[in-house]
Amino acid sequence: MPTDHTATWNRIRKIVDDRPAGTLVSVTAYDAGSGEAFEIEGEHNYASASTIKILILVALARAFDEGRLKPTDKRPARQEIRLTGSGVVNWLDPDLELTLQDHAWLMTAISDNTTSNVLIDTLGVDAINEVGTDLGTGGTRLGRMFMDRNIPPGPPQNRATSNGLVAILKAIENDTAASPEQCAWMRKCLDDQQYRNDLARHLPDDVHYRGKGGSIEGIEHDCGVLTGPKGKVIVAVMTQGFENSYDADRIIGRIGTAIADGLTA
Predict the structure, then answer these.
(1) H/E/C letters for each residue in 103-122?
(2) Which residues contact 193 (CB under 8 A, 6 or more apart)?
(3) Is the full-model pTM beyond 0.85?
(4) Which has the minimum average pLDDT: 20-34, 76-90, 104-118, 155-169?
């Protein structure tokens, strides 16, 4: 029997309604079993922060499927695309070459911006966005490589909507983003996520999270798949305008807890 999410959706509405004045919160949720969907401002377009990396991951998986690239192909992190203070690769040997599969794991699990730039450089911005168009991600698009926090005016921005992020995760979950083999690999990368202070911050032991968050000044997002005894919900929460990032983290965490309660109660 499908899970009744009415109480969950009402809790989420209350959480969002109680947010501080001047802040924005978008939520999209999808029950993978019943197909029931829920959204609040799901098409509101935000600076994506690192959530856009799941689109890069899918584009890479498709390149593996098509034989254009191999997981074992190696690429260096050239000095001109390394980012100060981001991830780990920036601090390693300048001549280091990693496999594309290793770059992808670092991009996803520890959100290394330098390895993300390696993959953008390898795949191309247009090719990555073509994948987004095919997946129906709408305003979720890559505009440029990742940069340091002092981004100059002018370059196109990386943008995302909660609807678009859920569309990507749905395709990964149901093996339509790429081949079943590559979708299983992408799910493993998302399973290994090291940053769990948003949707996963207060999950019970019997609810599993895999996903990808992102943050820049004034922005906190998380998107992921929550799986419990009563089913699976794919969810994205995007926020903007919180003076204290921890307040945004707490709201995202409360939404994750509300969904988890519906998957266990």
Answers:
(1) HHHHHHHCCCHHHHHHHHHH
(2) 108, 109, 200, 209, 210, 211, 212, 213, 224
(3) yes
(4) 76-90
Cβ pair 213, 221 in contact under 8 A: yes
Say what the pLDDT of residue 265 is.
80
Closest CA to 25 of 220, 196, 257: 220
Structure-token pair, residue 207: 């609810």
pLDDT one-digit tens code per residue, 72-127: 999 999 988 888 666 899 889 988 999 999 999 999 999 999 999 999 999 999 99
Which pairing describes strands 46-47 and 37-40: parallel, antiparallel, or unpaired?
unpaired
Rg of the Cα atoms in the chain: 18
Name the residue ranges covered by the structural domains of the chain.
6-264
Burial class from Cβ neighbours inside 10 Å (0-12, 13-18, 19+) for residue 134 reads: middle
Q: Which fold has domain 6-264?
A: Beta-lactamase (3.40.710)
Cα 95 to the center of its chain, rounded Å: 29
H/E stretch holding 100 reads: helix 100-109
